[in-house]
Amino acid sequence: MTSTAIASLFDTLQPAPVWAHFATLCAMPRPSKGEAALVEHLNHWAQARGLATVIDPVGNLIVRKPASPGRESSPSVVLQSHLDMVCQANADTPHDFLRDPITPVLRDGWLVAEGTTLGADNGIGVALMLAVLEDPQLVHGPIEALFTVDEEAGMGGAQGLAAGVLQSRLMLNLDTEEWGQFYLGCAGGVDVNVQRAGQCQAIPDGHLAMRLDIHGLRGGHSGLNIHEGRGNAIKLLVRILRQLERRWGLRLSTLKGGTARNALPREAFATFTLPAEAAAALGDELAQWQVLLRQELAGVDDRVGVTCQPWALDQVMSAPDQAFWLATLHAAPHGVQRMSVQVPGVVETSNNLGTVEVSPQTGACNFMVRSLVDSAALEKANEIASLLALSGVAATLSDPYPGWRPNPASPLLALCQSVYRSAFAAESSTHVIHAGLECGIIGSKYPDLDMVSFGPTIRGAHAPGESVQVQSVAHCWQLLTAILAAI
């Protein structure tokens, strides 16, 4: 799609100011840890409009807008969203997230990115905030707009936010993905990282080299979709490799799967060798595996595919290295570990085996553990580390962040519910989300901050085909401006 066509698409959407800002975000690369150009652009944009700005040492941008006339004594409020996006593309979609713009299409009331992530998570929240900062007609008290960086790759922006920078005692986070719902709690988390050096060996005599791919899975957000039973391409691939190892003496060379720690792995592949006589029967074996996996994942990941092709290799990993990686990844936990008793229907603790990259020389993998209970997240991470210790490998725990403890008696929540009721003649609902929001980290630095989160309806966040419901964005704009006027 040409830039002119993309601009024309956004010109048809309402509210126009919000979509104009989102169009800018689609045009500017913003992967985690690569938001500096966008931060600088927004900093100049805000200063050109007479707004005070601060870029803190970790790269967060804070923009302050004075109260509208007559509202100077109204309480100040923080608006908060993160600038970075999860960068995921299908294997057959050539896209450079460091240079190429996102090219969405409009389909049945949804804005959709075909083959890549859209960045509506959390670009719509950013666009809503920019529209508030730009509009001189809105009624509101003092506003502090906090644009954080590096949320998707470890909450780095929120982790680095200093205490004492924000002056407000109210905060609206705009990073949830179901219109009509207010969120007042979220999971915390911790990463488990594994690295291990290896040794290579020559290909055994009489072996042929192959490449095996698992593809066609839906993937998705490792917090929002973990309970749906979607397939993990890494786990499925390892199951097959273990069977081929037992049956035919497979020798593994490389294994790679997943592209983001907080996304369910959609694709994975391995290169390996088999005895020539086994390679001849491999096609029938893998066809049976595809049938089996589609039966197991029926109604969830019906399009899972298993394909294989001849490959060129000059080495495999040593037998001890192969035994370590295949046994460890086969035994590694993935999925829901416990449902919450305090918050029925919500996942309490889960683990995502998100990324693996193994070669004859080295290997690494990442587990992302989430929990509504901080101690439970740490315990699950330590259990995984203990599993690795049985093989003599020391796992490291990193990027811990606290959850956001719900406060059902929040005065800000009561106000938001009242405004929603008046604006839409309907009742909203309140929820706790298993995904990680920056509210937990920010709240740990600002314990007196009263926080509520809401956002538009987004589907498929963290996976190609991500979409946002256009009408829900208009509703969010209506609600946000009404809440600011009511505070």
How many strands?
23
> What's the CATH class of the largest domain, please?
Alpha Beta
Strand % is 25-35%
Instruction: Fill in the CATH topology of the largest domain.
Output: Aminopeptidase
Q: Over all CA atoms, what is the radius of gyration?
A: 24 Å
Straight-line N-to-C gap: 42 Å
Can you tell me about this structure?
This protein is of the alpha+beta class and 487 residues long. It has two domains: 3-186 and 403-486, Zn peptidases (Aminopeptidase); 190-401, Alpha-Beta Plaits, CATH 3.30.70. It has 13 helices and 23 strands. The chain has helices at residues 3-11, 16-27, 36-48, 120-134, 156-160, 233-248, 276-279, 282-296, 319-331, 374-389, 411-424, 439-445, 470-486, and strands spanning 52-55, 61-65, 77-82, 104-107, 110-113, 143-148, 170-173, 181-186, 188-197, 200-201, 207-215, 251-257, 268-275, 305-310, 316-317, 335-339, 347-358, 362-371, 396-401, 429-433, 450-453, 458-459, 467-469. α1 packs antiparallel against α2 (16-27), α6 (233-248) packs across α9 and α11 (411-424) packs across α13.
